[in-house]
Structures are given as structure tokens and as C-alpha cells.
Write a sequence for this structure.
């Protein structure tokens, strides 16, 4: 059986696979320098990491794709179900309704520290109603799905015979083959004045100049691909990875032989938010930044950038994309073999 032969030759397998899963690209894998020492402390230190080759979705999962999954399975996302009071000690029961976090900035804010000024937990906000119960996705088929928590993203991935990327895989992919480049497309944020990703221009959170053409999310093919052919790695929506968050990276091992291969992030117990000791919700790493990343507030429109997100949280600016690793997932994919 050809499958077994292929699995014994992982490098050749990937190259020789003519049946590229639809909507995916084959990334070569390799050793790269992950993280950055020039920006936020959680991105440091720069360290070397090796990832094997893998397939990755060309774009974030869209509303159209997510609708197919929901139609096929009847899946109900976390944002559509009222939270269980026992998971949220101290929360007032009348506050525990089905909903999700929507970006809704006031005209004026007092400071940039308190994000509750522009994030609103909105009853009835979910993937079909990204800006609240009266909104819809009728014109947003090609936009990334949002208001998906980690379990929702993983459920989709499993259904599709795929998985969520690790942080290392995601960052390798976002760099598009450029060594040590600040941005996914090179060293300049807007080369020749051209926007390469959907971010925020103007003073966040009250002044959205939309110089890049988009106030909120954008169609996943609106901006050019990176060197690997992947769209929207940077900006538009943050993307879930499977790694537990840790406050910084592990430094390089002294010996060259010890470059971590396919690292899987920190420990779950170390991922909790120490500022919120009462709420023990572990946190995963988000990557890529979003349409809300602004020079005056959050310069996370870079491959090295990372952000912790509690697994049960969903928002109007977080989505995901999937991967298939060599030797994994093909079986479930069925049609691909
Ligand atoms: Ca924008
Ligand atoms: Ca993105
Ligand atoms: Cu940001």
C-alpha cells in the first residue's frame, strides 16, 4: 500500500504528493530564528527552532468554510451557549449570558491601559452575528470566521482532518522564508507606502483612518501573499495556535545539536494569567496580530509577535487556520488518498 511506503520516507512524501489538500500549501520546514529581541519582552529571546514540512491553509478559515462545518455537524460554538456559573466564581449570574467580545470603542477614552473601554461583552454576538445580534455575515462569506474560542477552532480542524498549528509552525510559515525580517514581507512596514496587511492606521482606539481600505475584517485574499504563498498571516484576525502560552521563549541551547525540533510550547499550568488568580482558565498563544493592531498601541503585526488568550475567549478579531503534518491527518482526509 503506497501510504505505508510514503510514511517511511517523510521528506520524499511531502515533495512527491501530487494531491495537495484543497486550499493548502506545502511548506518546506527547516531551521529558523524564532522570536525577536527588538520588540515586546514576550517575543524574546531569539532562538533557533526546527520544524518539519507541513501543509497549511492558504488563508484563515472563512465564514463560508465554517458554515459548511456547522451544516455538516450541527456544531454549536461556545459563544452561542450561556456560560456555566461554576466555571466563573464570583461572576453575577445575570451576567452569564451567551455572547462574545466585540470591539466597540467610545468616542473618548481615559487611558490605553483599560481595554474594557473598547471591548464589550455583547449578548448575542457570535460567528453569525459578529457585531451583535442585529449584525450578520451575509456579505462576509470570504472574511475570516471570528468569535471562535480554542475548542471551536479545534473542532473545525478535527472535522476537516486537520490540526491547529504550533506557534513554531505558525511563525515559520509567517516568515515566508525571510531570515530575521521584521515583517512577513521584508524590513519595511509599508514598502512604497503600500499596506501589506489589514492593520489599524490612526490613533487607536478612537481614530480608524482605514488607509489600508478596511475598517474591520477584510476578505482573506485582499492582501498579497507572503513568500510561501500564504495570505493574511499578519493582520486581519489573530490566529489560534496549539501552544500553551509562556511569558518568554527558551534561550538557545549552547550546543548546535540541541536545536528543538517541532517544539510544542510551555506547560498548561504556566499559562494562567497571574493578574486574575480567581479565574483559572489556561491560555494559548495567538499569532499574527489583527485589524486592531496600531502603531500607538500594539505593534504586533509581525511574525514574532504573540499574545496570550484564555481558551474560552472569543472575540471579533480572533480566528484561525489549520495544518496537516506529514503522516498525520491524511487518513482522516480520506479523499486525499
Ligand atoms: Ca484596517
Ligand atoms: Ca492573521
Ligand atoms: Cu494588536
Amino acid at each position: 500500500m503506497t501510504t505505508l511506503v510514503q510514511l517511511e520516507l517523510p521528506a520524499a512524501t511531502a515533495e512527491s504528493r501530487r494531491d495537495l489538500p484543497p486550499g493548502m500549501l506545502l511548506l518546506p520546514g527547516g531551521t529558523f530564528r524564532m522570536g525577536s529581541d527588538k520588540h515586546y519582552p514576550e517575543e524574546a529571546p531569539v532562538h533557533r527552532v526546527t520544524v518539519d514540512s507541513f501543509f497549511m491553509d492558504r488563508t484563515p478559515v472563512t465564514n463560508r468554510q465554517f458554515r459548511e462545518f456547522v451544516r455538516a455537524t450541527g456544531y454549536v460554538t461556545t459563544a452561542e451557549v450561556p456560560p456555566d456559573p461554576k466555571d466563573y466564581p464570583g461572576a453575577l449570574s445575570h451576567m452569564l449570558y451567551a455572547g462574545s467580545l466585540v470591539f466597540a470603542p467610545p468616542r473618548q477614552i481615559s487611558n490605553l491601559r483599560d481595554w474594557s473601554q473598547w471591548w464589550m461583552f455583547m449578548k448575542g454576538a457570535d460567528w453569525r452575528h459578529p457585531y451583535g445580534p442585529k449584525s450578520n455575515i451575509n456579505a462576509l462569506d470570504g472574511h475570516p470566521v471570528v468569535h471562535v474560542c480554542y475548542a471551536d477552532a479545534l473542532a473545525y480542524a478535527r472535522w476537516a482532518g486537520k490540526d491547529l498549528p504550533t506557534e513554531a509552525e505558525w511563525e515559520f510559515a509567517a516568515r515566508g522564508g525571510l531570515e530575521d525580517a521584521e515583517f512577513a514581507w521584508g524590513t519595511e512596514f509599508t514598502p512604497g507606502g503600500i499596506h501589506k496587511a489589514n492593520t489599524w492606521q490612526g490613533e487607536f482606539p478612537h481614530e480608524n483612518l482605514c488607509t489600508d481600505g478596511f475598517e474591520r475584517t477584510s476578505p482573506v485574499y485582499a492582501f498579497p501573499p507572503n513568500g510561501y504563498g500564504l495570505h493574511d498571516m499578519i493582520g486581519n484576525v489573530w490566529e489560534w495556535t496549539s501552544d500553551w502560552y509562556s511569558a518568554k521563549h527558551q534561550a538557545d541551547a549552547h550546543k548546535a545539536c540541541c536545536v528543538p525540533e517541532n517544539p510544542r510550547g510551555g506547560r498548561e499550568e504556566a499559562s494562567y494569567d497571574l493578574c486574575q488568580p480567581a479565574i483559572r482558565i489556561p491560555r494559548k498563544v495567538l499569532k499574527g496580530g489583527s485589524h486592531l493592531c496600531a502603531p500607538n498601541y500594539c505593534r504586533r503585526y509581525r511574525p514574532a509577535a504573540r499574545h496570550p488568550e484564555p481558551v474560552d475567549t472569543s472575540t471579533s478579531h480572533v480566528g484561525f487556520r489549520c495544518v496537516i503534518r506529514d503522516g498525520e491527518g491524511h487518513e482522516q482526509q480520506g479523499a486525499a488518498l
Residues 1-16, 330-337 have pLDDT under 50 and may be disordered. Residues 21-325 form a domain with the paralog of FGE (formylglycine-generating enzyme) fold (CATH 3.90.1580.10). DSSP finds six helices and eleven strands in the chain.
